[in-house]
Amino acid sequence: MPTNVNPTVRRRRLGQELRRLRELKGMTAEEVAERLLVSQSKISRLENGRRSISQRDVRDLCGVYEVEDVRIVDSLMQMAKDSRQQGWWHAFGDIPYSVYIGLETDAESLRVYEPQVVPGLLQTRSYAEALINGALPEAPPNDIDKRVSVRARRQDRITDPEHPLRLWAVIDESALRRLVGSKQVMIEQLEQLIELSQLPHVTVQVLPFDMGAHPGINGQYAILEFPDAADSSVVYIEGVTSDLYLEKANDVQRYSVMYEHLRAQALNVEQTRHFITEIVKGYTRPSVD
Question: Contact at 8 Å (CB) between 193 and 203?
Answer without folding.
Answer: no
